[in-house]
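Lecture notes, unit on binding sites. The following record was shown on slide 14. It pairs a sequence with cytidine-5'-triphosphate.
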Amino acid sequence: MKNNALKHPIFKIISQSAEALGIDAYVIGGFVRDFILKRGQHKDIDIVAIGSGIDLARQVAKNIPNHPKVQIFKTYGTAMLRYEDIEVEFVGARKESYTEESRNPIVENGTLEDDQNRRDFTINAMALDLNPSRFGDLLDPFDGLKDLDAKLIRTPLDPDITYSDDPLRMMRAIRFATQLNFTIENASLIAISKNKDRIKIITKERIVVELNKILESEVPSIGFLLLEQTGLLDYILPELVALKGIDEKEGQRHKDNFYHTLEVVDNIAQNTDDLWLRWAALLHDIGKAPTKKFSKKVGWTFHGHEFEGSKMVYRLFKRLKMPLNEKMKFVQKLVLMSSRPIALAQDVTDSAVRRLVFDAGDYVDDLMILCEADITTKNPRKFKKYHNNFKLVRDKIIEVEERDQIRNFQPPISGEEIMAAFGLKPSREIGTIKERIKEAILEGEIPNEHKAAYDLMLEEGKRLGLTQVIASD
Ligand code: CTP
């Protein structure tokens, strides 16, 4: 470890700066963990000073040729500077005690051990010595190295204390377990279940950061299963919990839409890194809980769940203080359209594909990715059939697009042109004619071209009793 981890020139500079101030300093946390895991260069470096972190940051800035600006966070006693593409954060070693109401602790100066004690997990509490005579030595009082090897998330202190002190760590434990494919030790899981309602003191924004990291992982279901198992999901995404369970009436059962959803999310994670498309997969069935009905005739139905689900997306984003912008609209639209290609795959006609492309616009490719991920049947024959059908739909989309240019459809005849042709003022007839032209194009009656559309306009105008005032060319 000695020579490799601290190769970056910044570490020598910090080491010399600490020596000049007569204090010890250590690299701690994610940088050390990710180096050992060979996860690639960690861009955030956390430095603990046995003394003032702010003074050390100022000294380091002096010793860097271009003297980067030091950002100081007085309330937390921390400082930050940027060096090339790396962000270095400095903090004085501390001993912390927490209160019931807040995750912000009362802080006193402490030793390195005090500081390591108050960290979240053993794998995040390992430190590398920056003192010149011990440069690169690993200080690992809680056997973090062993836990890395055993792929275990464990807290340095009694987990009940660690999680109750800072409930965000419950989310972090599950996030690391998902990202790293680690197991959370049993005592921790029990402590999380016990302290779950303390998640209420954590801001929505911080919860969403962790949720997003879970969703961005290779196998996101690991995290959602843990969230469900510990009871945290009830507080964060009750809409998903409501999908759990299988009802049976008169011998008819429906599938468990919670586990189905997680399968869809894992499937989509193999085909896209787009966070919002993954959110769409996670939420695509949330409308099923409030729309579920049973009738003797048709069994279980979820009529209108896509529309209900898309309305729920807005409320959910708002509650979690997520952006209510085009990202939310994208998720809404995908949820709303999530069953369209499936219905279509039964019978792939040109006009149905044209309508799909018209309605989905630029989202059509993402919609296809979502629908393919939605195929979770365990019957290999059906699995193959559905995928083949979707391949047909995809081919047809390309074909129809090349011919008809339906994506981001612009009507070939404008309202002005219709008004000029019949000497009209703005009126209802214009809308009727435009709608007729659009329908004719989507149905494949006429090509998406000006000439054909103009002729249809004249025909439709005649039908409406309008008189042409200028001759067509
Ligand atoms: N830490 C903690 N409790 C928290 C947040 C952070 O004890 N609620 C400590 C951990 O030692 C952690 C370090 O602060 O390693 C840095 O935190 P952060 O930068 O948030 O996480 P990293 O571990 O660096 O991991 P990542 O960058 O993947 O979030």
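Take-home: Residues 29-30, 44, 46, 119-120, 124-125, 166, 168-169, 172 surround cytidine-5'-triphosphate (CB under 6 Å).
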